Amino acid sequence: MGAYGQDWASYQSAQPDTSGLSFVFAKVTEGLGYTSPVWVAQRDHAKANGLVTGFYHYPHIANDPVAEADFFLRQINLAPGDLLVLDWEWYGQNVTNAQARAYKTAWLARVKAKAPGHRVGVYADRNNWLTVDADSNAGDFLWIADYVPAGQPRIQADWLFHQYGSQPVDKDYCHLDAAALRVWALGTQPQPEDDMPTPADVWSYSHGDKPDVHQTLANAANAAVAAQAGVAALSKKVDALTTTGASDAQMQALAASIASNPALADAIAAKVAANIAARLAN
Whole-prediction pTM value? Predict the structure, then answer.
């Protein structure tokens, strides 16, 4: 079924008509010194109307691609689902095809490294893609320009977006429907990691492992939490053994379990001492 969108630059207003659109790409930067004066307003307008949003950079191929990638990313306060695009065009720049290819490779690698969790792709017109590109590297997606009916670009490579017209504004088609596109755009968001240490991490940890003070405090706090969990688990074992009657073998196993974890033994000793002190005070 597909979805329809547009791409905007400073030629468009700050709040273009979004009727019938599911996505939009806004130009943010060009080279190392230009930032669109309306891109922030266009972004906010697109998001307010529920569109999947993407942002693109127009290169000056003779420049350092890493510097241009960094300049582009510095302008954007990225949000989950934002798409990032290299507008791979260089008309009138007097550079070689080899330079254009090298720029594409380096820019994509830099943006992927600096913006983990975001889809990074390439916009290219059909001629550049067929005659200049040599490795079919479009990052996470190809956005191809070919002014033929929507969804029918004349290339063999896999594509996701198709720019099929330019009047009165650049018109685009995505072969995913709106719902699938939104899910896809969010698909590389990194999952939060479980920072709680395992028992092995806790018992093997020493302050000398990580001299950073903040990390030391964090590990100490996590060790305390893990020790409390260990105390609770052993308390349940003790309760069960004292209720049912423990054999010598069972008590020896319990003692061995405590002895094998010095930090846990210290925590239990502190808890016992606190209980004794509380009883003596009564």
Answer: 0.67
